[in-house]
Backbone:
């Protein structure tokens, strides 16, 4: 019989957890696997916000409950220890007499944060922590950042040529990347709580920012429109998805705000500094609305603003095998880097191909 270690079963739990992407926020994505004598006898994942947790589904999937007392439970995130929309999973694990629990990473939520593990230890259950911890933390990077910083997880998405251009000298950008890349962007949107752009991006191509090339939910559309200058007829103000417009508090008295609200659009006013919206305040307000993750699809100026304000966690760049040359529009507006030592340092993830395009993932180093 093939010898399988803890990492093998945790990888399966991670596969299950990922199935909850775009459905469980503001809860975390969690997968659980129950193993007896080296074989999986039950598994489950958190399928939707407010629904049964992964551990509950995995336990319920075991045909003979008596087997649980001889089994090991693998779970990507520490079992909860509090009453929320569902009872504590740690209590259920104790009640079922599960012999051992293997945990990928701890839950940073203040109501859990080690309490679930303590409950298991108190009941005499053997607990192993930190199996594939980095992978489990990445699975819930938005949830973890939310509960440790009080801000959403920010990903910049760019589509550019090999020489780093996002538009030609005339501003044309359709289409730099191929159909496969564009489909992947729609899938990404469905995984994020919100997608954000500036008014210039909306104005340039009347962006709709909905999920159309795949199945999935539409994220909240966030438009940074400092002076409420966008036409009311813009597609982003349609009823296909929720839209939140962020404007400067200087313009709070404009009648247009009421007209937008009449169309079902939420209008948020924040502070303005030197003609630019306070991005940190925007993110704080979004977090209050349970937005844990934001996909920023703006142009070079918005991307540069997020970088300069040190608000970016991850960058996704779809690189097309094309060249626009020096007269094209660069992916980033000036960042104030005058010597190499001032450069923004990144840590690359694994690259992927979508058709002929290359997707590069990079995390911003602290």
Residues:
């Amino acid at each position: 019989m093939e010898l399988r270690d803890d990492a093998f079963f945790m990888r399966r739990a991670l596969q299950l957890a990922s199935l909850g992407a775009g459905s469980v926020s503001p809860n975390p994505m969690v997968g659980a696997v129950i193993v007896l004598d080296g074989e999986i006898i039950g598994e489950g994942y958190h399928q939707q916000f407010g629904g049964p947790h992964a551990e509950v589904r995995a336990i319920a999937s075991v045909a003979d409950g008596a087997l649980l007392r001889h089994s090991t439970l693998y779970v990507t995130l520490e079992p909860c220890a509090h009453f929320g929309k569902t009872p504590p999973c740690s209590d259920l694990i104790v009640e079922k007499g599960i012999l051992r629990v293997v945990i990928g990473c701890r839950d940073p939520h203040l109501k859990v944060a080690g309490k679930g593990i303590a409950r298991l230890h108190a009941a005499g259950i053997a607990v192993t922590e930190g199996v594939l911890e980095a992978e489990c933390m990445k699975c819930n990077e938005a949830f973890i950042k939310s509960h440790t910083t009080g801000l959403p997880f920010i990903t910049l998405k760019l589509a550019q040529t090999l020489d780093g251009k996002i538009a030609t000298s005339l501003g044309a950008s359709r289409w730099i990347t191929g159909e496969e890349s564009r489909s992947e962007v729609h899938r990404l949107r469905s995984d994020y709580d919100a997608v954000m752009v500036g008014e210039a991006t909306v104005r340039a191509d009347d962006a709709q920012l909905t999920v159309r090339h795949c199945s999935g939910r539409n994220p909240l559309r966030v438009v940074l429109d400092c002076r409420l200058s966008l036409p009311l007829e813009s597609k982003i103000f349609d009823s296909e998805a929720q839209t939140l417009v962020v404007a400067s508090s200087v313009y709070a008295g404009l009648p247009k705000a009421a007209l937008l609200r009449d169309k079902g659009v939420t209008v948020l006013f924040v502070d303005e500094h030197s003609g630019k919206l306070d991005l940190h305040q925007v993110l704080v307000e979004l977090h209050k609305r349970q937005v844990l993750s934001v996909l920023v699809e703006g142009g070079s100026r918005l991307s540069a603003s997020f970088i300069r304000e040190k608000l970016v966690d991850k960058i996704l760049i779809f690189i097309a095998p094309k060249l626009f040359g020096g007269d094209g529009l660069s992916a980033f507006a000036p960042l104030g880097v005058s010597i190499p030592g001032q450069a923004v340092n990144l840590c690359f993830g694994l690259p992927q191909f979508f058709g002929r395009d290359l997707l590069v993932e990079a995390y911003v180093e602290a």
Observations:
- The two ends are 45 Å apart (CA to CA).
- The mean pLDDT is 92.
- DSSP finds eleven helices and 19 strands in the chain.
- The first strand starts at residue 31 and ends at 36.
